[in-house]
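Aim 2 progress. For leucine--tRNA ligase, the working sequence is reproduced below.
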Amino acid sequence: MSNKREKSNEENQLWQSRVDELKGYEQEINKTWEDQKIYEVDAPETGSNEDHYMITFPFPYMNGRLHLGHLFTISKAEFAVRYQRMKGKKALFPFAFHCTGMPIKASADKLKRELETGHAIKAADSSKALKSKMASKTEKNASQVEIMKHIGVPENEIPEFVDPLKWLHYFPPYGVKDMKQFGAAVDWRRSFITTDVNPYFDAFVKWQFRILKEKGYVVKDKRPTICDPSNDQPCMDHDRSSGEGVQPTNYTLIKMQLVDPVKVDERFSQCGDAKVFLLAATLRPETMIGQTNYWVKPGETYDVVKAKNLNEYYVAGTRCVQNLIAQEYVEKADPIFELESNKLFGAECTTPSIKGAIRGFPLEGILMTKGTGIVTCVASDAPADLQGILDLKKNKPMREKYGINLDWFNFEIVKIINSPKYGDFAAEATIKEVDADPAFKKATKAEKLEEAKHRAYMDGFNNGTMIYGPFEGKPVKEAKELAKKQMIAEGSAIDYYEPDTTVIARTGAECVVCLMDQWYLLYGTPEWKQQVVDHFATMECYHPEIREKFKACFDWLSAWACSRQYGLGTRLPFDEQYLIDSLSDSTIYTAFYTISHLLQGDLEGSKPGICGIKPELVNDDFFNYVFRDGPMPTTIPEDLLKKCKREFEFFYPCSCRVSGKDLVTNHLTMWLYNHAAVFDPKYYPLAVRANGFLNLNNKKMSKSEGNFLTVVESIEKYSVSATRIALADAGDGSADANFTDITAKGAMARLFNLINVIKFPPQESRNEIENFFDKLFDAKLAKIITDTDNAYAKMAYKDALKACFFDLQNAWSDYNSSLEGVPISSILREKYINYSLLLLTPIAPQFTDYCWTKLLGHEKSIVLEPFPSSWSYDGRLFFEERFLQKTYKTIGFRIKKGKQLNTAAVFIKNDFTEVQLHVLAILRKHWDQKNNQFDDQTVMKEIQADEVLSKANKKEYMAFLNFYKEAVPEFGPFLLADKPEINQVELCNNNKSWFTKQLSAQGITNLEFYDSVPEGDLWDKTIVEQAQVYIPTANVILVQ
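Predicted structure tokens for this construct:
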């Protein structure tokens, strides 16, 4: 045990010493880059034919330090901009910091209250509107003082953060510092912060909104909006801690009048002569004429509340009541009392939609987080309702438990809709159909009912006709709105909204929907939407699922609340009582990057930039000239105006935007919309690459659970280079990625392997490329360059890393081990070192630049070197390597454990059989050289129709066919020749020393290769005859 512990300690000490060594190199290289201003990129003079590449990342919100999740997405831009620069483009990666919105102001105000009162305020305490039983769900949130300490703010400075501007002065510089330590290839001259603190950016956003208003895309209206009840402000996606993308859902609340409220609960006597209504939410008001009963959740409580401006009382769940308050249907006060749900079982209700009274029945599965917690029952058309009634009738123990009288089921199921497929009793028909469907044989009861509901709804709503009630004869689609309007007009229903699912604001409050009179961006306007959809069809998205996510968003995104009266930001230029929200001031700022360094001289725009233009001169005329080909202003010198315009026209459009996939449904779609509104189509974005979230060691990153790393913490723990490699390896798709400790530490070992190759040349070497393994490694290197280049071009960084780091080092290791008694080629060693460093530079530039300049002595930084080009190579070498490996395994398979064997023979065949020649002819005929593949369907058709093959042993030729179908796309069509193009015996004999080395440990001292049947009876003839072209057989015996 002690030996293991000592070994572990030694490994940890070695690891830490390597981390410390690398960190020293990395910061030295970072300083060199900064001193040489390597990443400051300007547009060339007009007339230059240089190509541009501009990549951007959604600026991070500045209420804390950057963390590994930020870095994962940032790394995609980092790797891309470095690769594109090496490919010869003027590559720009600008980076700014977002301070707009409510979170900073809310946090500052919360901190102020904590310091004034002397006790911690949990996030949920900030919600004035939520009742204690709802607020308690978020009590686990930390106080603001605790949060400030956790993110590294010195305790003596915390009181200064009651001023929101302190946050703007404090965190963005740390963002710059962290990113510089990471070695980001950012042009920091172009960085800025948002809000009206920055006069240049403030003017830019106001210009944008004046254009949107002129085009009719911004209007003031009263619309349902998701709001934070703690401050009565809209709570859009960036203001939420959960529930991004959630929209208001519109229900019709059916008012079901309790026939005898006091009989239900004596406390209703305090309501006097006022009517008491149970509220039930529905999306299908046209079906309310078919109610048979209503459902209540056992063991729950409902709030009894007073209607606003009406002599009525409502009974509903707490969540619903909060939304009713926000929509001004209910008085803002505590409930009159809380009603136990079990008291409603059997209670009679009436509504104008139906004849007679209906009663309350128990239903366990009701969600209190959807609707009111009271559910209507339409047994004719809702499969779950029908099944619920049938089950309850059969379930005597449940009926007795809740006091349900069997006589209460003596109601008629009224048929209200006729649909082409399911007739006038869709609930019954769809239940039977799904039960009989083999696809649902193993499905649960709940799954079957959900499928039946879907079928009944699709056919009934889309194709059905009303056969009962006031809208008899009308299509169901038409009757829905007619029924809703009628019920609301007669006072028997309420037009109601709630968030589709739970939304939690960053203040900790659960959000509600309110009807808010404010400014909206009219996303979804037909002609505007069409511009976006048409352009999006031309964009590169990298992942098909992300494209579909965008398309889905185009379908539902509509009016967006873009203003608020609380927080930080830019004032609406045409209504200055409002601030522009954080998702609306961050849509076209990618264009501002192109000129920000010319306008402002620091992050906050407190002084002019390179052009010396004062903020008061930066107005709509200026932006119209630079960005929209407007007239040239006369207040700014012509040469400065042209310089600004040249920067924009060279670097735009944005070549690619990297982002988390969660922003597809808001920011990224709005980015496209606003470009379509403001710019000429030639400046619309070219590509977007969205990734999943980052897990840390296979678990979700979480501060509270300690599974979390800031940028600084990761660099301190692993070094920059190991962090960057682990980020590249974490994943490239839209699924969640995984940063692992094992990868970071494994990367460190490989980096030092490369350092050792550089530092310690072999004592002997050859200045030539001559033998098979020399040529093979040279070919592998050429292929790896091509593979790495292709992977970088596709932004597939895990694949690029695999090729240039893992595969290349493995190839070098294999090459060294294959050279038994032969010195390595100095030419190949030099190639290996140089190309390893060049190929890895986009991912681990500090490491490669250290090796390039400090160890190899190059004067120019490696980040300024071009990306290497590959060279032609003989692809047959890879097949020959495989042939040798397979042959070695074939021999090894014949070596029996425990037996002394010393002689091996390999039997090689040079001719195909007639059947095999038929297969090859068919494969040659259907080989697609352009796409490097076979037309499998056509191949199999012809194979099955071939007369010769129809008489042959199918098992034999199918194995042959599958071998070539797999091998030809990988190694090349030379394999399809009627005579093998590789001399198998010669290849084996030329590499006999390699075989001998591999087999010596297993006692094999004699080895021969035969391409004809050997004489005598020394060898098993059966084994000899089993050999096929490129698939030799072998035998192993003991020869005295």
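The chain is about 45% helix and 15% strand. This observation will guide construct design in the next reporting period.
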